[in-house]
Amino acid sequence: MKILYIYRYLLLGGVTTQLANRLEFLRSVSDPHFIFLSDHGGRTAFGDFDQIKVTDDPASVHDYVKKHQFDLIIAIDTKEMTDYLIDVHCEVPIIQEVHGISYKLNYLVEDEQRHFRGYIVPSNYSKERIVADYSAPEEQTYVIPNCLDTSLFSPKQVEPLTNKKIICWVGKLNDHKNWQGFLTLAEKISTQRDDCVFWIIGGETASIKATRHLFEEINKRNLHIQWIDRMEYNEMPDLYSLVADSGGCTVSTSKGESFGMSLIEAMACGCPAVAPTVGAIPEIYEGTLQRLTYKLHDLDSCESIVHRLLDNKEERKIQINSGIKKVKRDYSIQHVVKQYFELLQNLSKFQKVW
Fold it and tell me: Which fold has domain 165-330?
């Protein structure tokens, strides 16, 4: 099967990570290609794989489709490309893969949806949202969770950088990820104990205005925050292991998640991850892991969870083991991508294994 993925940004973000995670398995059973509309330095996620093209010209995309005779096109947040392909009567089946939930998905309710073979989302929450809010057909909307390379994301041996416990926040510097909530949490914890340091990871693509706002808020609270705006994807397991070995944890203060990739990355590395019960996050936090969740904006509860993880060795051990087990069982590449490829075969009506 020849598959073409079309996505807007070639950057080291969540969608690119998923495409890269699937690649090794898909290469063994199919012939995947990728088109990105713009390049933001994310090519390293794909290693030496060379079937990657960067263009924002719809006609060029159509020429590429005709040249390679694809069996399936999977479009991610690229309305202008799918509109063009529909207008020129492209006969290759198109699947919409939806990773985020926002106003940008308005195109899902337009008449063109009848041209799509199906919709793939990473969580039941995402399915409920696009069916209810954007009128995606329920019977053509399929849930396949995100996957993680558990050989890469596993506990690592790392040299300590501090003798204090690291409380770490990972994400983009936007209101949705709610970095302000993390600063408030850091301020609260700092008044209770002096054995913690606070790190923020991410924000490379933030505007000057956004970064200025971050520094203003840090200074207003008289906090010391270690900010690392960019880390390579293959460096993240060392980061999470460093946080775990310090006796710390990661904390999410996000206002909503269609999945929660950074949470399972941390868990896989033996790093407890505290998170709010928003969006799809409760689908990850089952059983004892529920004790790591709090209601959005209830930072008193969040603080209590962090203190317990830092001070209660037995609870910490339980949560570390539960997290590793959960990720290996439900989100490993082999487990998830096998389901994913079987779905693609069914949707394309193409049964040959490459």
Answer: Rossmann fold (3.40.50)
| CA distances to 24, 116, 167, 227 from 236, in Å | 19, 36, 15, 15
- Residue 293, token pair as written in the block: 């969740």
Number of C-alpha atoms within 13 angstroms, CB side, residue 206?
A: 24
Query: pLDDT tens across 253-306, in order?
Result: 999 999 999 999 999 999 999 999 999 999 999 999 999 999 999 999 999 999
Give the residue from 21, 23, 25, 47 showing the smallest Cα distance to 34. Answer: 23
Q: Tell me, what amino acid is at 14?
A: G
Cβ contact 283:124 at 8 Å: yes
* Residue 313: predicted pLDDT: 97
| Positive or negative: CA dihedral 53, 56, 58, 60 | negative
* Residue ranges in 164-312 assigned as alpha helix (H): 179-192, 208-220, 236-245, 261-268, 281-284, 299-311
pLDDT band at 352 (very low <50, low <70, confident <90, very high): very low
In the chain, where the domains are located? 2-146+332-348, 165-330
Whether the model pTM is above 0.85: yes
Q: Which residues pair with 142 in a beta bridge?
A: 120
Fold designation for 2-146+332-348: Rossmann fold (3.40.50)
Beta bridge partners of 96: 75, 119
Residue 232 confidence (pLDDT):
84
CA–CA separation, 190 and 167 (whole Å)? 11
Strand order in the sheet with 196-201: 225-228, 196-201, 165-170, 249-251, 273-276, 293-294
- Residue closest to 323 by CA, chosen among 289, 351, 280, 352: 289
